[in-house]
Amino acid sequence: MSTQDNYTLQRALAAMCHGAPGSDATLQAQFGIALRHFHAMLDELQLTDAQLYRIAAWLGRVAAQDELIMLCDMMGLTMRALDLARTGEQATPQNVTGPFPKDQVAEGSNPCHLATAEEPGQRLEVRGRVLDARTGQPVPGATLIVWQPNQFGRYENEDDSQSEDNLRGKLRCDGEGGFQIFTVRPGGYIIGREDTEVGVLMRRLGRNRQRAPHIHYRVVQPGYRTLTSQIYFKGDPANPVDCIFSTIEDHIVEVRPHPQRDGYQLLTLDVAIEPEVPA
Prior knowledge:
By secondary structure, this protein is α/β, with parallel strands linked by helices.
């Protein structure tokens, strides 16, 4: 059945009265697009009312398990929305925030020692600058918030064996936009649980729940759009199978042996942030 032949869809679209008290013209236009796609899905799948209500009930259970965002992630919707939101080709792309940010972590020094001397794992230095995406010039004093799992893929707020705010830090870039972070290389991990609605769905679809090793960071500076992104490691075997499709080429960085520090690896990264008001 074509859109033109779908009498119910035409009635649903016509039911939105333009100019009615309290109506929102932008929302009406957006909801009209959603209606067309929902009706097209029903037509293509030939869903009955009973099947439709089972889907609605399933979504209710996903919401009750607090996994709606995970559902968006595993369907690739989150990364696609971030792609569509990108406005400047020169800016570092946004990436998924994830469930574990803590923006209120205490501010420390630059260089920042994210890992204690006792933290196990491959020692790593992350070194770079924050730049203006439009001019390429350094952005002095930008705030950088960093968080990551340990070498076993566990974040401190899901692991009682770690101290509070372990592997988290906040620092200000220097006068040249520079930052220096000493940490350990994080491990990958499996997201969610196998017995939840989304976990069962992924198993039935033949999907893995693997996340590639990564470091999260956020850059905040007045006059610039906040950037939330991630660092991935070139050559890691989990990059191609990352289950939320966030291992894009712009975020995969080469790691090499540190030329000055025995036992360390070095990762260099320049981050470009967008001014709030384009030129």
